[in-house]
Amino acid sequence: MTTAQRAGSLTTPTLTGQMIIAGDHVTGTGTAVHAINPATDERLQPAYAHGTAADVARAAAAAAEAFAIYRNTSSAARATFLDTIADNIDAAVDDLVARATAETGLPVARITGEVGRTSGQLRLFSAVLREGSWNGARIDTALPDRTPLPRPDIRQRKIPLGPVAVFGASNFPLAFSVAGGDTASALAAGCPVVVKAHDAHPGTSELVGRAITAAIASTGMPAGTFSLLYGSGRELGIALVTDPRIKAVGFTGSRSGGTALVQAAASRPEPIPVYAEMSSINPIYPLPGALKARAADLGRAFVGSLTLGSGQFCTNPGLVIAVDGPDLDTFIDAAAEAVSATTPTPMLTPNIAKSFAGGVDEFDGAATVVARAAETSAPNACRAALFTTDADTFLGSETLQQEIFGSSSLVVKCRDAQQVRDVTAKLEGQLTATVHADDTDHDAAADLVGLLELKAGRILFNGWPTGVEVCHAMVHGGPYPSTSDSRTTSVGSLAIERFLRPVAYQNVPADLLPTALADGNPKQIWRRVDGELTRD
Amino acid sequence: MTTAQRAGSLTTPTLTGQMIIAGDHVTGTGTAVHAINPATDERLQPAYAHGTAADVARAAAAAAEAFAIYRNTSSAARATFLDTIADNIDAAVDDLVARATAETGLPVARITGEVGRTSGQLRLFSAVLREGSWNGARIDTALPDRTPLPRPDIRQRKIPLGPVAVFGASNFPLAFSVAGGDTASALAAGCPVVVKAHDAHPGTSELVGRAITAAIASTGMPAGTFSLLYGSGRELGIALVTDPRIKAVGFTGSRSGGTALVQAAASRPEPIPVYAEMSSINPIYPLPGALKARAADLGRAFVGSLTLGSGQFCTNPGLVIAVDGPDLDTFIDAAAEAVSATTPTPMLTPNIAKSFAGGVDEFDGAATVVARAAETSAPNACRAALFTTDADTFLGSETLQQEIFGSSSLVVKCRDAQQVRDVTAKLEGQLTATVHADDTDHDAAADLVGLLELKAGRILFNGWPTGVEVCHAMVHGGPYPSTSDSRTTSVGSLAIERFLRPVAYQNVPADLLPTALADGNPKQIWRRVDGELTRD
After folding, report:
1. Which one of B504, B506, B511 has the shortest CB-CB distance to A463?
2. Peptide bond just before B148 cis, omega within 30 deg
3. Under CATH, which architecture does the B3-7+18-35+44-278+489-496 domain have?
4. pLDDT digits (tens, 9 = 90+) for A61-118
5. DSSP code at position A534
6. For B1, how many CA atoms within 13 A lie in the half-sphere containing its CB?
7. Secondary structure class of B223 (helix, strand, coil)
């Protein structure tokens, strides 16, 4: 049986429909929901009954109890734990592909790739743990003879914040869900994790939850290090974020959902950080030289990025900003042709498909439709859409500045380079901004980079934003509202810093110091000693 | 004329009573306030008229304009700028000592030391800039032959957030005020600064504001890089925090003031980070072995820390938690004797003195007074106070868990080590926690360190928390409510990270890359290349 065939097998017999709380399988007592196969509108078994505030309290209490042990595990032990989760996920690839394709309507190749990305993220963080710089070790040696006052011995390291709540995203059933980037970075930091699964892929969530739970058992981590809950965002989600034992939150989803969590977290007696990745329209800037050289190729490639995964990426290119003229017309014509030729693909859920259609309808009145994918009777299909408008209209329209989640994009025609700057200045914060430039575009490109640094977390040249490399230098973040906290990233190794805080140890006796700060550097990690980085 | 004599010279003739907005001297049109010499209740000239929302808008606009240039200045240029501010402040030491002692009632030696600390902080950040790790440079090299997809070239650096609002603190007229740690770290990061001066020391603020303005002129920085405003926290302060051009806030002060700013910043259309350092009672843990060896010495030394600067430190030891018994009685007796022997010293302002007296009165009903400093007819004097209570009473009393700003402390007598833990568990977040331990206390100390890491930003052994070393490893921060953001520090070189955010550059042409990320590492800074730190 090939993987493609397995993807047709819609019920994995082992699924229980239960939550996992500190290793225990727990049947919810709330509303029961089923995943829907958006390609067929078929209801998938089993039912997943939502949990209650009592389940949140039980998971949070277990996480707090586990934290006392888990936070003191060695980097090496946590690295082994993360590697084991990764191994378990890789081993479950067939079941995951079968279930996740059914739950999301995403193709087998995409889900197969996402499984690899998810285990790869976990292994990136195990490498980060073994390398050791995450400790943020700093030592200022004592200066007993300094006048007028001696300097004490002061050492600093970073410690985990505490239990973290993670909200699974609809659009990455693996890489931004139960064992996704937020969970991987929080577990690496030493924080237990309580996940609220997304209702769109509960079965995938259960499978991944079991992979983590099995890794906890086989590596001897405390059971409360991980729990998996099902429930609504407004009830169970808010209960989770406002539980006093939860100390940070990771979220990927809508602006309204993220904003609600940020407000709930800020209203707690003890406010906590929320890392919400929310809304981005990811402008594309084809500059005149690039357009002159290859407008039609760019237009076609743009549509490839636009329609990938039914456009359901945080980094989907929803906006093209360029100086008007014949070359831009060529770009638009090629893009329009490509959009018209695309076959509609299912969106993740009926609600997302409905929102997409509504968003496109709203744009329809405010901008010019230049292409739509063909109509289809397939359920929940994303009919790609391409609009154009002029910069003045764009600048005056709140509607056109909104994100449409899915394969819809708007080309904003500007009079000149100054109007490109004016439109850019009006944009809200973005995850990405992409420039297509040739050598002849150097001055315009240099000017744009300066503007875009203030608007986006990642600036790309001559590529497309929909691929997000998992590596050390990646930033998947950006100014509000692309995220609620621009000081960090949710993809890449820097993400571990979201769940850490520094502690200083002053004149603490050698036998009470954390190993990362011990004399002689027994862990052989990079440390900043009297201001200089060293491994001595 | 000696410095001590100059301190008696209450008006520095050059003071104008004006704000400084982007280099212009501007007379406020609001309420006029005078500094009060708290030691004499004398009103000091000149009057400082408060600014209005229009002044905030003007300063913020100038800061935003300056940001476009200032953020792109080189590390070396900003280092020279900071060094020049430091030189100017050192050169003004006589005027600063004269004015600040008059405005605060703090002694000449303290203010002289604080001038040195303030210029030292600025020089620490110039060293940080020259060293270059602040860039957070990371490079993941392209892997063009990787399958299934090539890896692009991705590089990351940190850039400044934008204009920063800084609120001067009452208790450090120099080190946490106009050119204090918040300003130094924000300017180092590349952020223009708009300071709201504290009304308790407007003249000192003006002198320091001029030192910065002169440095801007002599080093060629844009004028809007710095502005100094006078005004009320509730009006001008909130206007400043809610101005859309302001991108982060630094504050040191009361819990109510900090909370108001945090809420205002969170309610903006674009929320921004607030680094508010607020409330801490800084528990002291004399362990049984240490008490047995030197209870009386510890009691006396404790009072030295408690009464330093009339107890007006964020790190003032407001709580002692210990197992009851004869050795603790010896500690209390020695401390009581020392408290009774102290001479009351003036507090910073009449309001602070009134709040202190009110706080002590409230404790008077809830705990046992064991010592007060003598009564005095001197105005605004801080009569040090020492209270005792038992752990059960403490755990049941909200009053006794509050901070009294000033030289008042409470000894909580515990039945046993378990009750020490119970009391500790009940504490809110703290800037510091101090353990006094002998070798025989090893196990109890180890246990405490584990608890205190979760409660405090700095753990000290066998010392006192009131000294805060300015260095690389210092953490002056901690869990809420000691600060509004435990992930950072307001003292020490790590503080620069508060005002930075990461940006990734993907396949950006070499001639458009920031120098910190250029091939060949022309700045010779530490960078993480493919996961490994290197200066190559």
Report:
1. B506
2. yes
3. 3-Layer(aba) Sandwich (3.40)
4. 999 999 999 999 999 999 999 999 999 999 999 999 999 999 999 999 999 999 999 9
5. E
6. 9
7. helix
Give dist(CA B331, CA A224) in Å, integer.
42
pLDDT(B304) > 70 = yes
Q: Do A474 and B140 touch (CB under 8 A)?
A: yes
d(CA B531, CA A124) in angstroms, rounded, equals 10
Q: Residue A473 to residues A127, B279, B460: CA-CA distances in angstroms?
A: 15, 37, 36
Backbone angles phi, psi at A527, to 5 degrees: -135, 150
Name the burial class of residue B287, with classes exposed (0-12), middle (13-18) and buried (19+) by CB atoms within 10 angstroms of its CB.
Answer: buried
User: Which among B270, B368, B291 has a CA at the least distance from the CA of B334?
Assistant: B291
User: Which one of B149, B285, B501, B534 would you mutate to disrupt binding with A, by most A Cβ within 10 Å of its Cβ?
Assistant: B501
> How many other C-beta atoms can be found within 10 angstroms of the C-beta atom of residue B218?
13
Neighbours of B279 (CB within 10 A): 23
Active-site residue list of A: 277, 314
In chain A, what are the domain boundaries?
3-7+19-278+489-496, 283-461
pLDDT at residue A148, rounded to an integer: 87
Give residue A195's region: left, alpha or beta (phi > 0; psi -120 to 50): beta
The residues, any chain, with a CB within 8 Å of residue B361's CB and separated by 6 or more, are none
User: Tokens in use for B286?
Assistant: 């004399």
- Closest of B135, B84, B463, B535 to residue A150, by C-alpha: B463
How far apart are the C-alpha atoms of B417 and A145, rounded to whole Å? 36
Interface of B with A in 263-302 (CB under 8 A): 263, 266, 270-271, 273
What dotted CATH number matches A3-7+19-278+489-496? 3.40.605.10
Instruction: Check if B507 contacts A (Cβ < 8 Å).
Output: yes
- Residue A13's pLDDT is 54
Fold entry, domain B283-461: Aldehyde Dehydrogenase; Chain A, domain 2 (3.40.309)
What size, in residues, is chain B? 536
Q: Please report the pLDDT score of residue A173 as a whole number.
A: 98
The SS3 of residue B527 is strand
- What HEC string does B251-307 produce? EECCHHHHHHHHHHHHCCCCCCCEEEECCCCCEEEECHHHHHHHHHHHHHHHHHHHH
Structure tokens at B278: 């607020």
DSSP state of A486: T
Position B14 scores a pLDDT of 86
Tokens of B13: 């003739």
Searching chain B, which residue's CA lies closest to the CA of residue A159? Answer: B453
Residue showing tokens 């997302």? A352
For residues A217 and A188, the answer to whether their CB atoms sit within 8 Å is no
Residues B248 and B499: beta-carbon distance below 8 Å: yes
- Of A133, A507, A526, which has the smallest distance from its Cβ to B463's Cβ? A507
B318 touches chain A (CB under 8 A): no
Rounded CA separation A470/A495 (Å): 11
Which parts of A308-402 fold into alpha helices (H)? Answer: 326-341, 350-366, 391-396
